[in-house]
Design goal:
Rossmann fold, seven-stranded mixed β-sheet, 20% strand, globular, binds S-adenosylmethionine
C-alpha cells in the first residue's frame, strides 16, 4: 500500500535528517508567539522526528502530541524527548486520516509538510479540523502547485523507477549539479536553514506520495469549514515550485 511506502520512506530519509532546532524555532515563531503556546494542548500531526513538538513542549505547552506513521521517525522523536528531558510531550504512531482523538481536543494543530503526503489531503485536513477546538489555530504547510509542477512530477516519476539502493547516491549527484543554481538564489532563502540540498532533493523526488495545491484551493476549503485565515506565507523556500505555502487559520 502507498501509505506504508510513505512511512517506510520516512523511516530512512527523515531519521538521517533532523532539522536544526534554532532554525525550526525561528520558523515556528513567525506563526506562534510564546503566549499563544503556554499551557495549550498541541497536536503535531505528521511530526516526523519531532522537532516542532519538542519546541512547542519547551515553550510551555501543557501537552504536546506528536503523531506519525513512520516508526523510524518516531524513535528519533522519542530520543529527542529524552535528550531535552521533557515530560509534556508524547509521540504516537497514528494516521492523520483517522485520528483517535475526540472532537475539539487541541488548542493548536500543527501540520508542517505532511497532509500532501497522505492518500487524501482534504480528508486529512478534515480530521485536523475536527480535533481542533473552536477558537483554536490550525497551521498547514502544503506543497505549492506552480507552472513547473509538471516538470517536477516527471522527474519524480522517472526517479521512482530507479532501485531504492541508488536513491541517496542519486540525490547527491543531483545536488552536485544543482548547487551552483541554488547558490545564485541564496538571497531568496526563506526556509528553515540547515537543510542540506541532497536531503531536500531526496525528499522532493523520491517520496511515494506527493500532492500539490494552489493556496486558494486550501484557503477556500478551510473557509467553507468555518475557518478564518490569520496568516499566510506564499513560499517557505527559495523556489516557489519546490516550496510549501503556509496558512495559519482560526476555527471560528
Ligand atoms: C516532510 S516530513 C515532515 C516532518 C515534520 N512535520 C517536520 O517538519 O519536521 C512528512 C511527514 O509526514 C508523515 N506522514 C505522511 N503521511 C502520513 C499520515 N497519513 N499520517 C501521519 N503522518 C504521515 C511522514 O511519515 C513524515 O514523517
Amino acid at each position: 500500500m502507498k501509505k506504508e511506502r510513505v512511512g517506510k520512506f520516512y523511516d530512512v530519509v527523515w531519521t538521517k535528517y533532523i532539522p536544526e532546532y534554532s532554525a525550526s524555532e525561528q520558523h515556528l515563531e513567525i506563526f506562534f508567539a510564546d503566549e499563544e503556546i503556554r499551557n495549550k494542548r498541541v497536536l503535531d500531526a505528521g511530526c516526523g522526528t519531532g522537532i516542532f513538538s519538542i519546541i512547542f513542549a519547551s515553550k510551555g505547552a501543557s501537552q504536546v502530541m506528536g503523531t506519525d506513521i513512520s516508526q523510524g521517525s518516531l524513535e528519533t522523536a522519542r530520543s529527542l524527548k529524552q535528550k531535552f528531558n521533557l515530560q509534556n510531550v508524547e509521540f504516537r504512531e497514528e494516521d492523520t486520516l483517522q485520528l483517535p482523538f475526540e472532537d475539539d481536543s487541541f488548542d493548536i494543530v500543527w501540520a508542517w509538510g505532511t497532509v500532501h503526503h497522505t492518500t487524501n489531503p482534504f480528508k486529512a485536513i478534515d480530521e485536523l479540523a475536527r480535533v481542533l477546538r473552536r477558537g483554536g489555530s490550525l497551521l498547514l504547510a502544503v506543497y505549492r502547485r506552480t507552472k513547473l509542477t509538471f516538470l517536477h512530477e516527471i522527474i519524480r516519476k522517472i526517479l521512482l523507477q530507479t532501485p531504492k539502493k541508488s536513491w541517496t547516491a542519486l540525490s547527491k549527484v543531483f545536488a552536485f549539479f544543482l548547487a551552483p543554481v541554488v547558490l545564485m538564489f541564496k538571497k531568496r532563502e526563506k526556509s528553515r536553514k540547515g537543510e542540506k540540498l541532497e536531503e531536500l532533493i531526496l525528499d522532493w523526488y523520491f517520496v511515494p506520495i506527493r500532492h500539490y495545491y494552489y493556496p486558494e484551493e486550501i484557503q477556500k476549503f478551510l473557509e467553507a469549514k468555518g475557518f478564518e485565515v490569520e496568516k499566510f506565507l506564499p513560499a517557505s523556500g527559495r523556489f516557489d515550485s519546490t516550496s510549501n505555502f503556509i496558512l495559519k487559520a482560526r476555527k471560528k
